[in-house]
Automatic annotation (TrEMBL):
<keyword id="KW-0328">Glycosyltransferase</keyword>
<keyword id="KW-0444">Lipid biosynthesis</keyword>
<keyword id="KW-0808">Transferase</keyword>
<keyword id="KW-0441">Lipid A biosynthesis</keyword>
<comment type="similarity">
    <text>Belongs to the LpxB family.</text>
</comment>
<keyword id="KW-0443">Lipid metabolism</keyword>
<protein>
    <recommendedName>
        <fullName>Lipid-A-disaccharide synthase</fullName>
        <ecNumber>2.4.1.182</ecNumber>
    </recommendedName>
</protein>
<comment type="function">
    <text>Condensation of UDP-2,3-diacylglucosamine and 2,3-diacylglucosamine-1-phosphate to form lipid A disaccharide, a precursor of lipid A, a phosphorylated glycolipid that anchors the lipopolysaccharide to the outer membrane of the cell.</text>
</comment>
<dbReference type="Pfam" id="PF02684">
    <property type="entry name" value="LpxB"/>
</dbReference>
<dbReference type="GO" id="GO:0008915">
    <property type="term" value="F:lipid-A-disaccharide synthase activity"/>
</dbReference>
<comment type="pathway">
    <text>Bacterial outer membrane biogenesis; LPS lipid A biosynthesis.</text>
</comment>
<dbReference type="InterPro" id="IPR003835">
    <property type="entry name" value="Glyco_trans_19"/>
</dbReference>
Length: 380
C-alpha cells in the first residue's frame, strides 16, 4: 500500500504516527510519502518539506507566508498527481489540506481527512466543499458525524487517542512526587492557555482568584504549567509581582500538573478534554478581544464552549466566559470543588466521556483507510 500524508503541526504528527504504525502492522509493505514530523518519519515517512514550515497560526502570519505555503501545496500536488498514491490522508490543517485533497480527488485519487473541522459549531456550509474534497472523514468525537451524514459524506467515528492512552484513574500522589510538589495540601492547577494573548488576558485573573482562595484557606497551594519557554517568561514576570503567593511554576508537564491537582482552573480548549480524561473537577474560562467575542457569539451555533459539556450534551463543568471571567466568580466556582462538593456529577460524566471516546483510535482509523483502499464503503 502506498499512502500520501500531510500533517502541518505537532498534534497532527502524533495522530498520524499512530495510524501509520497500525497500517504498517497490517500491511506487508507500506510506502509513506508527504509531509510530517519526527514521529511520522519514525514510521517510514520521508518528508518532502520540514513540517514546521506549515505550522502557522492566526490571521496575519499565514498571509506573510502565503507564497511559500502556496509553493509547498503546489509541489505536493504535482508530486502526487504524477505519482498517484493509493490513498491521500490529510491530517487536520483544514485550510491547507482540504483544497489539496479536492485537487487530488479530481485526479482520481482517493482522499481521506483526519480531524473534522468545526463545522458542527459554525459555518456548516463548509460541508458542501468538504464533500467535494474527501471520500472519507475520520472524526475524533461522536457528535461530529451527524452533519456529515446529513450531507451524505462518508464518515467514521474513530475515537480519541487520549482516551486510549490515559488510564481510567490517574495516581495524584505519584504525579505530585514526580513534580516535586507537597503531598499533604489541597492543590489547585491553573492553566491560562498556551498563547501569549490567552496568558495576558487570563493569568492575572487566575492569580487574583488564587489569592482570594488562599485568604480563605492558607493551607491551599497552587501549580501553574507554562506551555513553553516564552510563556514561562511571561508567567515568571507576573509571579514576581506576588512573591508571597504559594504558586509553583513548571515548564511543560500540563497533563501531569492536572493529574497532581485536586481541581483545575483552565482556559477553554483541548486541555479541558485532558482534564476530563484525567478525572479532575474543573472550572473552564475564557476571554478574548472584544471584537473577536462579538464575532464568535454571532457565528458559533452551539450552547457550550467547554469540550466536556459539548460531549455530555449538558452543563457538567462551570463555564465563565468573557465578562463573567472575573476573579471573584472563578474563586466562587472553584471553592466547592476543593471542598469535594459538587464533584460527583462531574466525575460521573467524565467516566462516561472516557468510555465513549475509548474506541481503539489507531486500529479503527487504519481499518477505515484499508476499507477505502479496497473499495469498500466506509461509514458509521
Amino acid at each position: 500500500m502506498r499512502i500520501g500524508v500531510l500533517a502541518g503541526e505537532a498534534s497532527g504528527d502524533i495522530l498520524g504516527s499512530r495510524v501509520l504504525k497500525e497500517l504498517r502492522a497490517q500491511c506487508d509493505e507500506l510506502i509513506v510519502e508527504g509531509i510530517g514530523g519526527p514521529l511520522m518519519e519514525a514510521q517510514g515517512l520521508t518528508s518532502m518539506f520540514p513540517m514546521d514550515r506549515l505550522s502557522v497560526m492566526g490571521f496575519v502570519e499565514p498571509l506573510k507566508r502565503l507564497p511559500e505555503l502556496l509553493h509547498i501545496r503546489r509541489a505536493v500536488f504535482e508530486h502526487f498527481r504524477d505519482n498517484p498514491p493509493d490513498i491521500f490522508l490529510g491530517i487536520d490543517s483544514p485550510d491547507f489540506n482540504l483544497r489539496l485533497e479536492r485537487k487530488l480527488r479530481e485526479q482520481g485519487i482517493k482522499t481521506a481527512h483526519l480531524v473534522s473541522p468545526s463545522v458542527w459549531a459554525w459555518r456548516q456550509g463548509r460541508v458542501k466543499k468538504i464533500k467535494q474534497s474527501v471520500d472519507l472523514m475520520l472524526c475524533l468525537f461522536p457528535f461530529e458525524t451527524q452533519v456529515y451524514q446529513d450531507h451524505q459524506v462518508p464518515v467514521r467515528f474513530v475515537g480519541h487517542p487520549l482516551a486510549d492512552e490515559l488510564p481510567n484513574r490517574v495516581d495524584a500522589l505519584a504525579a505530585r512526587q514526580a513534580l516535586g510538589l507537597a503531598t499533604d495540601n489541597k492543590l489547585l492547577a491553573m492553566l491560562p492557555g498556551s498563547r501569549s494573548g490567552e496568558v495576558s488576558r487570563l493569568a492575572p485573573a487566575f492569580l487574583a482568584a488564587a489569592r482570594l482562595l488562599w485568604q480563605q484557606n492558607p493551607q491551599l497551594r497552587f501549580v501553574m504549567p507554562a506551555a513553553n519557554t516564552a510563556r514561562e517568561v511571561e508567567l515568571k514576570a507576573l509571579l514576581a509581582q506576588q512573591p508571597d503567593l504559594p504558586v509553583t511554576l513548571v515548564c511543560g508537564h500540563s497533563r501531569e500538573t492536572m493529574a497532581a491537582a485536586d481541581a483545575v482552573l483552565l482556559a477553554s480548549g483541548t486541555a479541558t478534554l485532558e482534564a476530563a480524561l484525567t478525572k479532575r473537577p474543573m472550572v473552564v474560562t475564557y476571554r478574548m478581544a472584544a471584537f473577536s467575542w462579538w464575532l464568535v457569539t454571532r457565528l458559533v451555533k452551539i450552547s457550550f464552549a467547554a469540550l466536556p459539556n459539548v460531549l455530555a450534551g449538558r452543563s457538567v463543568v462551570p463555564e465563565l466566559l468573557q465578562n463573567a471571567a472575573v476573579p471573584e466568580a472563578m474563586a466562587a466556582a472553584i471553592e466547592p470543588l476543593l471542598a469535594d462538593e459538587a464533584i460527583a456529577n462531574q466525575l460521573q460524566a467524565f467516566d462516561r466521556i472516557h468510555a465513549q471516546l475509548k474506541q481503539g483510535y489507531a486500529a479503527k482509523s487504519a481499518n477505515a483507510l484499508l476499507q477505502l483502499h479496497e473499495g469498500n464503503r466506509v461509514d458509521g
